Amino acid sequence: MGKIKHKKEVMGIIKLQIPAGKATPAPPIGPALGQHGVNIMDFCKAYNDQTKDKAGFLIPVEIYVYVDRTFTFVLKTPPVSELIKKALKIKSGSATPNTHFVGKLRKEQVEAIAKEKMEDLNANTIDMACRIIEGSARSMGVTVQK
User: Whole-prediction pTM value?
Assistant: First the structure.
């Protein structure tokens, strides 16, 4: 993942995790954008338009605010924990991950999640990405079948 080049001077970067297609001016979005002088409704409409096909996911977004109060934003892939929960159809991970297990993830599911998340992971190969996904699964109380 390379650095993003901007034509204007960046005044601030705001990082949020918002449900896809459900951005509203209510907290935490309104106050975060308002303190930088960004038009909140413009952001909400643009975000909802770009994420309407990913309903049900929590989508991280990086909002770049420029000195002239305009903005651009970059959507990231959903967090690994969200992808694991969706794959196993569970509500949450285990409260005690090493003693109480909530599901089993197959190798194919791990690879599918790794391929989807690859651009945002700090991994050079799909094997390295799979190991990151397996570690996240273990910390959620999910066992991984070999």
Answer: 0.79
Residue 143 token pair: 């066992």
Tokens 């909802």 identify what position? Answer: 48
Domain of residue 46 covers 10-75
The one-letter amino acid at 87: A
Q: Is residue 4 part of a domain?
A: no
> Mean of the pLDDT values across residues 130-134?
93
Provide the number of structural domains found in the chain.
2
Q: What is the 3 state secondary structure string of 26-90? A: CCCHHHHHHCCCCCHHHHHHHHHHHHHHHCCCEEEEEEEEECCCCEEEEECCCCHHHHHHHHHCC
Tell whether 132 is covered by a domain: yes
Reported as a single tens digit per residue, the pLDDT across 56-66 is 888 999 999 99
- What the block records as the tokens of 23 is 């951005």
Distance CA 132, CA 139 (A): 11
**96 and 110 inside one domain:** yes
